[in-house]
């Protein structure tokens, strides 16, 4: 397996590895995605996705200008998938079409697919080349339903495993080659996993604080010095609170208007000024 398929990466000028159609300036950006690190490391599924896309293009007039590979869950929003974001940015810049093997490789979110259609960026699915605006929403809805069903099955399985561990002291895996007795769920390197998770949370909190900080600075420049006054102004401006922003980032709808409290303002000020 080539190095290209062993990590999440992008490659510009990918057109030279494919045979172009004759006399055309049509531009194609390819996007491939695997859901797990193991799949990404072994290249599982990437070759199949690539073959589907090339078979779809075979005989047509096209030119591949870039190729992006990502190892991320389809449940994550586009903001948490840098290769998808880069692919869409290139499509927008070059007027190119984003081509994926299947719609669920792009996203399992109806909201994201709808926003993508409204953005004007063209995209196509190799397994369903003749879908319409109506049918693409139906396909996206089915992909989202499948994602929710998978999540529900995982939660129920984990709950059952926890019950067995509590009653019997261990859970015996059903592996065909060897049996392993688990006394708890989760990674064996729990401390390392916690540390990584905490680091990710801190980075997200820092990014949100930096996003809101200019609004707070403007409030101060207007003579607002108390936390309460700044909170009232942020509420009046409709600046999203961190809790609401997390919901928005998950492609979910939020209702009503954001309401800021002095403690929220203080938390952001402490985070920014405390890091200086």
Shape: globular
In whole angstroms, the N-to-C terminal distance is: 46 Å
CATH superfamily of the largest domain: Resolvase, N-terminal catalytic domain
What structural class results from the helix and strand content?
alpha/beta
Give the C-alpha Rg. Answer: 23 Å
* SSE string: EEHHEHEHHEHEEHHHH
The tally of domains stands at 2
State the helicity in percent bands: 40-55%
Name the poorly predicted regions.
1-24
In the CATH scheme, what's the topology name of the largest domain?
A: Rossmann fold
Arrangement of strands in the largest sheet: 1-3-2-4-5
Judging by the overall fold, what is the CATH architecture of the largest domain? 3-Layer(aba) Sandwich
Strand elements, count? 7
The largest pleated sheet is described as: 5 strands, mixed
Q: What is the level 1 CATH name of the largest domain?
A: Alpha Beta
């Amino acid at each position: 397996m080539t190095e290209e398929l062993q990590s999440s990466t992008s490659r510009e000028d990918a057109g030279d590895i494919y045979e172009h159609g004759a006399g055309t300036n049509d531009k194609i950006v390819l996007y491939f995605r695997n859901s797990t690190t193991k799949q990404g490391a072994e290249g599982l599924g990437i070759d199949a996705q690539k073959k589907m896309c090339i078979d779809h293009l075979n005989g047509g007039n096209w030119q591949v200008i870039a190729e992006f590979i990502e190892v991320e869950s389809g449940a994550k929003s586009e903001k948490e998938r840098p290769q998808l974001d880069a692919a869409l940015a290139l499509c927008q810049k070059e007027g190119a079409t984003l081509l994926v093997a299947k719609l669920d490789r792009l996203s399992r979110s109806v909201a994201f697919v709808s926003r993508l259609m409204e953005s004007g960026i063209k995209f196509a699915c190799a397994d369903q080349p003749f879908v319409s605006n109506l049918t693409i929403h139906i396909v996206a809805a089915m992909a989202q339903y499948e994602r929710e069903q998978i999540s529900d099955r995982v939660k129920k399985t984990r709950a059952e495993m926890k019950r067995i561990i509590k009653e019997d002291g261990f859970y015996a895996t059903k592996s065909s080659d060897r049996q392993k007795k688990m006394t708890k769920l989760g990674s064996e390197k729990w401390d390392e996993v916690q540390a990584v998770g905490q680091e990710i949370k801190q980075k997200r909190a820092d990014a949100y604080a930096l996003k809101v900080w200019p609004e707070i600075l403007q409030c101060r420049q207007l003579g607002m010095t108390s936390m309460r006054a700044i909170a009232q102004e942020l509420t009046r401006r409709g600046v999203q609170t961190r809790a609401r922003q997390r919901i928005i980032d998950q492609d979910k709808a939020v209702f009503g208007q954001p309401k800021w409290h002095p403690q929220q303002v203080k938390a952001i000020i402490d985070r920014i000024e405390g890091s200086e």
